[in-house]
Amino acid sequence: MSRAAEASYPSRPDESGPLPSAEAFERRLEEGRRLGEALLAGLSDAIHGQQATLTHVVTCLLAGGHVLLEGAPGLGKTQIVRTLAALVDGSFARIQFTPDLMPSDVLGTSLVSTDGDGRRDFRYREGPIFANLVLADEINRATPKTQSALLEAMGERTVSVDGRPRPLPDPFFVLATENPIEMEGVFPLPEAQLDRFLMKLVLGMPSLEALTQIGARPSEPARPAPITDTVTLARAAQTARHVAAAPHVLSYAARLVAGSHALPEVRYGAGPRAVQALMACGRVRAMLDGRPAVGVADVRAVAPHVLGHRVVLGFEAEARGRRAPDVVGALLETVAEAP
Predict the structure, then answer these.
(1) Which residues does residue 293 pair with via DSSP β-bridges, in sequence order?
(2) What is the distance of C-alpha 127 from the center of its chain?
(3) Is pLDDT of 109 > 50?
(4) Are residues 322 and 250 in the same domain?
(5) Average pLDDT over residues 143-170
(6) DSSP assignment letter at 254
(7) CA distance linking residue 63 with residue 172, whole number of Å
(8) Which of 56, 212, 236, 257 is the least buried, fewest Cβ under 10 Å from its Cβ?
(9) Final residue in a domain of this structure, among 237, 267, 288
(10) Which residue range forms the structural domain that includes residue 231?
(11) What is the DSSP letter of 223?
(12) Same-domain check for residues 47 and 153
């Protein structure tokens, strides 16, 4: 099995192969729970006042998906990814998206090189996307051509240059940011590309207590020591894919997605990939709680962040000031937990 296939989420949970025994699964489930706790503790030491967001970021990392993070400047978006990369002893790259950024600036390009005998040949130079954790800063400031190149690599987990596919590192995690303040010179992501993100999170202002803690810190937090490695991280992600799901939980996730199409305020509902995302995040949430099976409560907990960017509101709803999280909240109230 290729590294790209092993890292893919979550439509083929059985591709990672059967676990050897129930005892081995319980042991690996506990390892995954402890790893999640350690990652959250390490992030909390560097980022104050964003505990819920940090939990969802770790959930997406272990689910093998990517995160779209919306927030004003200075709230710690770069620090989240840099700290995660240090904790898992992985490579980190930050890409500042601007209108003049080209796809080759992200993916890499082939250059003419000369060897010792004077012979010339093309040599591929990898772009910054070849890192375990990538921060795509202000992704909506780049042109659609560059956005598409990044999002295609996120979906396929390979980069095709000169007709040759090149696999991206495993694990591969992208956290893309959007600045809600800047409204000029931006290129909003189309709905079909938003679907590539496992979750969309909104980073709000920290509380007064958290702001006080931030002010008391004399400088930027020191780079934390690694607590694990990328192999162990991939092993935990594989364990999460084996967390069981009862038929009624699968049915609930499917009915949530189907119900998003029936709401009068929604112009377009979530697609089939949303069901996969709900179950992937729900399985990780169960593992982080030390449970071998995902429950309806796990699906409900991740639904606002999984479905919010996958539903398109109608003009009437937007005119009344309704937002996608409000509509998803109403959906959770109307869809029964039992069929």
Answers:
(1) 244
(2) 20
(3) yes
(4) yes
(5) 87
(6) H
(7) 11
(8) 212
(9) 237
(10) 3-96+132-141+148-158+168-237
(11) P
(12) yes
**CATH code of the domain in which 314 resides:** 1.10.8.80
Provide the token pair at 337: 């937990």
pLDDT, position 20 = 57
Determine the residue type at 62: L
CB 1: neighbour CB atoms within 10 A?
8
Q: How far apart are CA 84 and CA 338, in angstroms?
A: 38
C-alpha neighbours within 13 Å on the C-beta side of residue 287? 34
- pLDDT band for 215, please (50, 70, 90 cuts): confident
Q: Which residue has the tokens 């000031």?
A: 321
Rounded-to-integer distance, Cα 176 and Cα 188, Å? 13
Last residue of a domain, one of 222, 237, 252: 237
111, part of any domain: no
Q: Give the type of residue at 159.
A: V
What gap in Å lies between CA 172 and CA 131, rounded to an integer? 7
Which pLDDT does position 191 carry in this prediction? 81
Please count the CA atoms within 13 angstroms of the CA of 15 that sit on its side-chain side. Answer: 14
Q: Would you give the DSSP letter of residue 337?
A: S
Q: Report yes or no on 54 lying in a domain.
A: yes
Q: Are residues 78 and 175 in the same domain?
A: yes
pLDDT tens-place string over residues 18-73: 555 788 889 999 999 999 999 999 999 888 878 899 999 999 999 999 999 988 77
Chain centroid to Cα 300, Å, comes to 18
pLDDT of 234 > 60? The answer is: yes
What does the alpha-carbon distance between residue 303 and residue 327 come to, in Å, rounded to a whole number? 11
304 and 233 share a domain?
no
CA dihedral of residues 7, 8, 13, 16 (deg, nearest 10)? -30
Q: How many folded domains does the chain comprise?
A: 2
